[in-house]
Q: What sequence folds into this?
C-alpha cells in the first residue's frame, strides 16, 4: 500500500513539473512593453599585423602573407592564407609589404583591411 502511494505521488509530482516546464515558452510578457531586450551580437576581435605577400589567388579569394608574430591572437611568425574580398586584392602583387587587419571567425582568418 505504501509503495503504491509513493508511486502515485511520484507520478503526480513528475507530471506537474512537466506541465510547469511546458508553460515557460509561452510566458506572458504583459507590462514589459517598455523594457528593452538586449540582443548579443558579439563579433570576433580584429588583430593587426605586417607582412609580405607571397601569393594571391583571385579564384579562391585568398592572399597568402608571411607575417610577424601577432600577440593579439597569440600567433608566432608564419606564412598563411587569409580570405579576402575581391576588391581588397586589387592593386596588390606578390612581394608587396603590407599592413593588414583581420578577424578569425569559424576557424578562418578573414582580411578586414589591407594596405601597402
A:
Amino acid at each position: 500500500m505504501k509503495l503504491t502511494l509513493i508511486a502515485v505521488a511520484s507520478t503526480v509530482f513528475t507530471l506537474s513539473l512537466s506541465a510547469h516546464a511546458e508553460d515557460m515558452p509561452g510566458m506572458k510578457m504583459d507590462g514589459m512593453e517598455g523594457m528593452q531586450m538586449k540582443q548579443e551580437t558579439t563579433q570576433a576581435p580584429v588583430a593587426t599585423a605586417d607582412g609580405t605577400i607571397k601569393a594571391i589567388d583571385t579564384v579562391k579569394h585568398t592572399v597568402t602573407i608571411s607575417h610577424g608574430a601577432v600577440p593579439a591572437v597569440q600567433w608566432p611568425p608564419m606564412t598563411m592564407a587569409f580570405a579576402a574580398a575581391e576588391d581588397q586584392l586589387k592593386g596588390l602583387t606578390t612581394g608587396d609589404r603590407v599592413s593588414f587587419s583581420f578577424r578569425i571567425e569559424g576557424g578562418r582568418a578573414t582580411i578586414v583591411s589591407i594596405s601597402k
User: Anything to note?
Assistant: Residues 18-24 have pLDDT under 50 and may be disordered. The helical segments are 2-23, 86-89. The radius of gyration is 28 Å.
